[in-house]
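User: Hi! I'm working on a homework problem where we have to compare a predicted structure to a textbook description. Could you give me the structure for the chain below?
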Amino acid sequence: MKVSLNWLNQWVEIEDLDADELASRLTLAGLEVEEVERIGEGQEKIVVGRIDAIEEHPKADRLVVCKVDAGEGELRQIVCGAKNMKAGDFVPVALPGAEPPGIDFAIGARKVMGVASAGMLCSEEELDLATESEGLMLLDRSLPVGKPIFEALGLKDVVLHIGLTPNRPDCLSHRGVAREVAALYGRTLRAERLQTSAPAWEGAGESIEGAAALEVVDVEGCPRYTAAVLEGVKVGPSPLWLRQRLAALGMRSVNNIVDVTNYVLMDLGQPLHAFDLDKLEGQQVVVRRAAAGETIEAIDHKTYKLDEADLVIADVSRPVAIAGVMGGAESEVTEATTRILLECAYFDPRSVRVTAKRHGLHSESSHRYERGIDPGAIVDNLGEAVALLLQAQSHLEGDAPVVRSGILDEGPGVEATPAISLGKDRANQVLGTDIEPAQVLAYLKSVGVERVEEDDQGWRFRVPTYRPDLERGIDLVEEIARLHGFDKIEATLPRALMGHAHQLQKDTERGTIVSRAERRALNWVRDLLLSQGLREAVNYSFMGEGDLDRLRFDEDDSRRLAPRVANPLVQDQALMRTTLIPSLLNNLKVNRAQRRQDVGLFEIGRRYFMTEERRTLGIALTGRKRTHWSGEVSWDFFDLKGMVEALGQAFDAADAQWSKPQVDEPYLHPGVQAVWTVGNQPVAFIGQLHPAVASKEGSDQPIFVAEVDLEALIEEGAPVRKFSASARFPAVVRDFALVVDNEVAYAKLEDAIASLCGSDAGFGELFESVALFDIYTGQPIPEGKRSLAIKVTYRAPDRTLTEAEIEAADNALLAAVESQTGARLR
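Assistant: Happy to help. Predicted C-alpha cells:
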C-alpha cells in the first residue's frame, strides 16, 4: 500500500511530523514501512518559466525558438516542437542538468538544427503526470517564475510503501492509515473530511427506477449491492489535482470517470466500477453465478471461460463483469459514454479470492475484496464517489451531469460482529504491564472500539465494521499492545509457579504437557547422541501404506493398524506413523542424493496407535564415522548397541539385558539384530537393515537402525548421576579366549560373570568390568563353535591384589562360564 503524506494530511494533521519518525512509529505498531519515497526531491532544476517571445526556427518549420524567463534575471533561448503555447504562457522549464521523471536522460545545453537551446519546455507526460499529452503543460499565470515546479504545484511529496499483513484490510486506504496515525499520536480526523452533505441523488431529477433495474440473485456472494446513475456525463481528462494524487502513487490517469473510481479506492478503500449504461442490455444489472459455458472479454481484452462458481455482474443476456475482480470490455466507459451506472458493493471475500485465483487475475479491487472491505460504509462511499464525479466534470465545457434521484440498493447486508468480552486485568496479565483501566478504554476508543457493557470483572465492546480482524478478547489485547508501544513493554523474567503447576510446562514442540523432569531426560538423551557424532532429524508424524510394505510388515502386524488422517495433503502421508524407521530412511536417502554417504541421525518423536502414543527414539547409521588420525572406521552394530546401553546406564535401567528376538523384526537382518529388555519388557530393537530392504533403498553400504521406547525408559526415572571416587589401587586386566557354541549369546557370558558378584566366594567386589573385543570362527575352532575374546578388569577398592587372589578369581570366572554356558578356555 502506497500512502502519500500530502494526501494523508487531508485526513489528519501530520505537517509537524518527520516522515522517517512517522514511518518508524507505524512499523512499531504493526504497519511495516518498507520504503520512504521522496517525490520531487532532486528536481529543483525544473522550474516555473514564462514565455516572453516565440520565433520561427530558421531551418525547421516544425520547431520554434522560445525566449523564456526562468527567474534568472536574463532570458533563456530554448528550441521547442510543441504548438499549443503562446507568448505570455507559463510552462515548466527543465534547466541543463535536470532529469525530468518522465524521461530517461538528463537535459543539457546543445544546438538543435544549428540553433542553441539551453533547456527544455516540459509536457505533463515528461513530468510523469500523465501517460500521454498533446503539448506543453500550461501553468497558472499566478505562479512565481523561477520556483521549482514540484514545489509550486504542491507535487513535492513523501510516499510511504507499507507492507500490510492480510488481516489489516482497513489500512488499504488513506482513511484507514489516517485512523492509525490519529490513534498513535492522539489526534482526531479532520472534521471537513468527515462532514458529508446530503448525497447528490437526494432531491435530484427523475427517479433512478426509470433508468436502471437491479436484481441480486446470489445474496451469499453479494450481501449488498448499490448503484447510482449519472446522465449527461462528459468523459475527458481529469483535473490536475486528481492526476497529481494518482501520479504520486504510481497510478496512470485514464479519464475523469476511471480516475475517480481509483481515487475513491485509494482514499476510502472502496472498489467501484462504472458501467456504460447504454451498453447494458435492458438497462438491468443482475448479480448471479455464471452459467455453464459463459465467457467474458475483460477490460484487459482477454477472454475468460467462466466457471459456474464464479460470481458475475450481468445484464439480461450476458456477463458484463467478474464481480469484485475485473470489468468487461463490452460495457466499459469510453469517450462516447454519456450515461453511467456507478457500482458500489460488498462481495464475499472467499468468493472473490477463489475466482481471482482460478483465472489468475489480480487487481487493486480484488486485493481489497479478498481481504474484506467495510460493509458498513457502502452507501456513504457511493455518495462520496458521486460527488467526486460531479467535481471531476466541472472543468469541462458543457452542462453539468444529472444524477438520477435515489439509488439501486439490494441485499441483506453483513451480520454485525458479536460483542467481544475482555477482563479488566487481561491485558496486563498477557503483556506484563500495569496499564490503568481508563487508559485501556482510551486506547480501544481511539481505534473505534466502543464499550457497550461493563461490570466488576470486565467490559463488552462493539467492534467497528472496518475491523474484521478483531474477533476475540486477545485481539483487543494486541491492539492495546500496539497503541501502548511494543517498545515500551519491559523484558522481564516469568514469575516462578510453586507446587504442581511449577512442575508442568507446555512442550510447544509436541503440543503436550510434560514434566520438567521428563524434559530434562529428553534433553539428556539429545546431548548423549549429539556427543556421539549424530545429528538430530525432525520429521512429520505421517507415513503412507507404502512405508509399511517397505519394512515388510506382515498383514497381521499391529503396526499396520495405524490411525488414518482425515484429509491428508498427499497419499504418502495418509497415516499417523507407528514407527520412526521410514522417516529416518527417507532422511538417509536425501543425504545420499546430496552426496553425503556417511551419516548418523537420530529422531525423538511419537509413534501413534489406536489407543495410545509412545515417545520413541529412532537412530540410523550408515557409512563411516568421523575421520580420525588412526584411520577411517565405519559405523557398525556395536556402535548402536553401545548407544542404547549408555541410555540404560544413565536411566539406571534394572535387569537390562540383550537377547535375540523371539520373532525376527522383518526389516532387520536375521543374523544381525537384537532386542534389549528392561525388567522383561522389550524396550529397544536394533540391527542391520535387511539386505532386501537395503537394496530397495538404493544403498550400497550397510544401514544400522534402532528404535527405543523412551516412555519405558523414562518410567524408570530420570538419568542418574552417580559419584565414585577415583581408584587408588591398580587394576589387573586379563584376556580370555572362550570357545562356545554358536547359539550361545555373548550376553550369557556376561550374565555368568555377573552371577559371581552376588556369590559368597568373596570375588564379587573384584570384578570391575568385562568387554568383548573379538569374535573368531574357523580353524582350529571346531565347526558349530566360535571363539569370544573378552577383557576382564579386576580391582580391589582397598588394596593391591595378590597373585593368589587373581588366580582364584580367574578360576572362579572360568568355572562359572563353563557351568552356565559350556564355554571352555581356548
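For your comparison, note the following. The first strand starts at residue 2 and ends at 4. The domain at 46-155 is CATH 2.40.50.140 (OB fold (Dihydrolipoamide Acetyltransferase, E2P)). Good luck with the assignment!
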